[in-house]
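Hey,
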Amino acid sequence: MNLLKTVFLFELRMLRRQRLVLCLIAFFFLTGLYSIYYGHHFTRRQLTAIDSLEQTYQSKFKEIAASFTADTNSVEGKLSFTQAGIPSVIEYKNPLNAVHKPSKLMSLAVGQRDILPYYDVITRRRNTVQAPNAEIANPEMLASGNFDLAYVIIYLLPLLAIALSYNTWSKEKEQQTDRLLAVQGMYFERILFYKLSFRCLLVILLAWILSIIGIISDAVLNAFDWGTSALWLLTVTAYLLFWFSICLFLIRLGQRSTANALYLLGSWCFFLLVLPAITNALVRQSYPIPLKTDEAVALRENSEAIWAMPKQKLIDIFYFNNPQYKNLKTAADTSENSTVRFVAYYDLLGRKMTSVTEGYNQYPQKQNTISANLSWINPATKTQYLLNSIAETGLADHLSYENQVNRFQKTWVDFMTTYIIHDKNLSLTDLHHLPKFEMLPTPGKSKNILIGILGLLMISASILLLTAKVKSTL
């Protein structure tokens, strides 16, 4: 314990004297603060858009509700009262929005929220081809990604760890002070471990300070959650421990400072640039995603084919898929302007397009699954998956959202069909009890994140065990 205290006090004293290192730490700290600001600004912008949607919906909702008690003495009031409660009018004037709200800590790991839709318009004929929130964005920024705190932790803090650690022991050798330390005998390697531990704690402390600032900043936008925050801090700690285990392993090889720096920078390039590029290329080649235009073609072809179907066949298919309405079947259903025919058209079109969408989504789902499995060979990629999973900003969370929207759209169609096929209007009470979309959390997510964190720690432990068996040339 006395040796640990002595080494830590010495390292702290040396740190205070090295202005260049202090400036470097300050630079990374300021960079982290900017990333927190960037993520906060991005999240606030999406929340503002969602709030605007909600206000517009509530405003239209009040107008529709007021039409039930409209003054029939005026032409406008009489028309409004006549249209009150008509399902198609309600759906046209004020369609429901299925919103994927920003989750806790989204501002720290934006993930793919900048390119994936976060709300969808729900009607009997849902537009599955073009996202309703297709915002204008700079393509270069979309290609380069977001400068959030997750980026700083995964890409930049390892560089700080390398800058602080590459000459931890080689500097002593080059200055020939290692001979004085060698006199300590059994403490020789322990001193090396303590010196590196001080640097490790310094970087982890910096990451924790930035994370806590980010968590507090995010709590202004979203409710604070202890569990989510703890998972974030554990993931960050496990990832940085991996990098310091790499540093210790290469330092133990006993090379000069320049060689250590080159080896460590080579490791950074391998784990953060080369290996992700190789795995992404393999995944995309193995599971190519078809063009989105295929969905547009399918929508056009299905729309024309279903409308051109014989009326009796279309009606029979509708009653087969919806047996609860069979008792309403009449000969008039096949007339040119039959309400049932329009209901049957939208019902069958919705079923076919849902099938097309699910077929399209299976390709990115396969890519995401194989990428998640391959991420175990690269702790940097695994950490990115874990942080995105904590913030619910990854592709897996978006696919879960889309699946839930598809299920809810079926619920909405069934709800409206009940009124339309019975030729019945909604009452004011029914209007206040319209189906609402609620995003459900992915079951077992926290368990999977903890398993991922444990996996990172096991990788670090394996590297440390390998390091202990390496015969140092110092």
